Amino acid sequence: MAKGPDVRALPRHAGDLPMSDTEEFEEQPPEKLPLDAWHREHGARMVPFAGYEMPIQYAKEAGGGIVAEHDWTRTHASLFDVSHMGQLAVAGDNAAGELEKLLPASLGNLAEGQMRYSFLLTEAGGIIDDLIVTNTGPHLALVVNGACKWDDIAHLREHLDDDVTLTHYDDFALLALQGPEAVDVLDALIPGVARLTFMRAGLFQWNGQHVWISRAGYTGEDGFEISIHETHVRALADALVADDRVKPAGLGARDSLRLEAGLPLYGHDLDLDTDPVSAGLGFALPKSRREKGGFAGHAATMARLEDGGSASRRVGLALEGRLPAREGAKVFSGNALVGTVTSGGFSPTLGHPIAMAMIESEQATDGTKLEIEVRSKRLPARVVPLPFVPHKYVRKGAS
Amino acid sequence: MPRYFTEEHEWIDVEGETATIGITDYAQEQLGDIVFVEVPQEGTELAKGAEAAVVESVKAASDVYAPISGTVTEGNSALEDEPELVNSSPEEEGWFFRITVSDKGQLDALMDEGAYKTFCEGLD
Questions:
Q1: Predicted pLDDT of residue A348
Q2: Residue A279 domain flag
Q3: Which of A76, A347, A382, A395 has the most Cβ atoms closer than 10 angstroms to its Cβ?
Q4: H or E element at residue A278
Q5: By the CB < 8 Å criterion, does B58 face chain A?
Q6: What are the chain A neighbours of B31 within 8 Å (beta carbons)?
């Protein structure tokens, strides 16, 4: 076995978990989440991630463990603490116009309570971070990746007009309640949330407190994200797990769930060297903005959208057997190196390993047979459509 | 039959000239759900400290090192179909491989059960 007591010392191969982002934080000890003590009381094993000590999984005796937490999320409801993420807001007369210079989403037609997935882009069209923008009414709220938030804030400060105010809600916690039973659990606690549909959000009251609730998540399941002031988050977490349908779940299950859902993870599947087109995120490039431009990276993005303009493509790979291919594993077509695994692991839902990889566009067609090299063995893999496990979002208009 | 332990969380049962090697309950708990185990083939010569086996959990791949030098006499083929035996029975059915004991002196540096227990308590 690898040396050392801590799970962070056990991994011997890169890319096992979304933890390599912690490297740049090593000079500083990780910060504690508002729910730090709560996690430990629930038997969480804490690991450094994105500058925080975060729960990777909970005690086995209480039904924890990555696969158990994963399966519970797919069948009941799980509570994830994602308070490491950056909760930002921009406000001002031209907040939407200013923000549209930095990302390709259409914000002028974003109705109050509507949310959109987007990304901050460089002039070369590289992805600085992916995020969710919400029109809250008074401002445009951004939820950005924890490991990127300080760089994002610097980027926004540098490029947004001085008339636009940028606020970092660093005293707010963020909880995610995910799974098919999440809606019944949360609506019993906070009546009215069931009226939200996927990617819609609103302001609610709980225990005399304002809570901002979004019907969204990172697991592929129906679910909610709840923003609440850090002084009240413990009471809310207690109220949620008091319901037998809810168990806490950690980063490990969050990673296997999002991988099955085909959702990219910044720092692994996305980075400055990837772009929205090769990452297969064209849905977040609306027609009006493609035509009118006016955002960083527009020219580079348009060039990539042309036939043959994108040399590589993010794909899903299904593997046979049980041996997972991890991030960094090389992908071959015959003797030719055609790409690299960006995320990979064992799928608890499907019972076989799955991976996402950046592959030469010519090899990215569904059904293409490829091989992944793992410890000098070649594992057969097949390009499959994403997501691996169907999304269960509750969309507007769907019965 | 004496059982020895390493700081790398392996256990070693010595019976005559043969040692059976696996990972400890503490190790399987740390690794979490195990999905794949690769054990060395019969006849493989291993030097103390050499990479002997690989264990893949949902989280990560970890190497298992040879705690003593010797020649592999058997790998646990049951782990091919049931790697989860390492979780459910780490110190019995979930053994990894058997090896000849070429230098009994190497066992002296290993811990007994009490010392290993104390070692693990110091890690938490």
A1: 96
A2: yes
A3: A347
A4: none
A5: yes
A6: 7, 10
Closest to A311 in 3D by CA, of A357, A366, A358: A358
Instruction: Give the chain A residue nearest B83 (alpha carbons).
Output: A322
Residues of A in contact with B62 (CB under 8 A): 1-2, 10-12
DSSP result, A73-121: HHHSEEEEE-TTSEEEEEESTTHHHHHHTTS-S--TT--TTBEEEEEEE
According to CATH, the topology of domain B3-117 is OB fold (Dihydrolipoamide Acetyltransferase, E2P) (2.40.50)
Q: Give me the DSSP letters along A50-77.
A: TTEEEEEE--GGGT-SHHHHHHHHHHSE
pLDDT single digits (tens) A150-190: 999 999 999 999 999 999 999 999 999 999 999 999 999 99
State whether A316 and A201 are in the same domain: no
CA–CA distance, A315 with A341 (Å, rounded to integer): 9
Over residues A12-39, the mean pLDDT reads 64
Residue whose token pair is 């989440």 = A33
pLDDT in tens, A97-108: 999 999 999 999
- Local confidence band at A397 (pLDDT 50, 70, 90 cut-offs): confident
State which residues form the domain around A169.
18-306
Q: Do the Cβ atoms of B56 and B36 come closer than 8 Å?
A: yes
Structure tokens at A299: 């020219």
Find how far residue A253's CA is from the centre of its chain. Answer: 12
Q: What is the CATH number of the domain that holds A218?
A: 3.30.1360.120
pLDDT digits (tens, 9 = 90+) for A330-352: 999 999 999 999 999 999 999 99
Q: What is the side-by-side strand order in the sheet with A115-121? A: A115-121, A127-135, A140-144, A86-91, A165-168
Count: domains in chain A: 2
Percent of chain A with pLDDT over 70: 93
ipTM of the complex: 0.83
